[in-house]
Amino acid sequence: MPLIAIVVAALAIGFEQLVQWKYGPLGIVAFVLLTVGIKAKNVKLSGVGAGLLVLLLAQSG
After folding, report:
1. Are 35 and 52 in contact (CB under 8 A)?
2. Mean pLDDT across 31-58
3. Would you place residue 45 in the very low, low, confident or very high pLDDT band (cuts 50, 70, 90)?
4. Burial of 38 (0-12, 13-18, 19+ CB in 10 A)
5. Is 5 in contact with 42 (CB distance < 8 Å)?
6. Burial zone of 32 (CB within 10 Å; 0-12 exposed, 13-18 middle, 19+ buried)
7. Which of 2, 5, 46, 49 is the most buried (most CB within 10 A)?
8. What integer pLDDT is reported at residue 53 of this predicted model?
9. For the CA atoms of the chain, what is the radius of gyration?
């Protein structure tokens, strides 16, 4: 069980670093909003975070 938690944490940190490198501070803000919204079960907050990530992905593509 601890090994799975370590692997999941490493993947989450790696994804966060990738978002920060590619999309800058706004990408981190969007990722944090999405994560906090999901953990708090707040649909509005996670929707705002997801929307920001979609806008950033659409802008770069």
Report:
1. no
2. 90
3. very high
4. middle
5. no
6. middle
7. 49
8. 86
9. 13
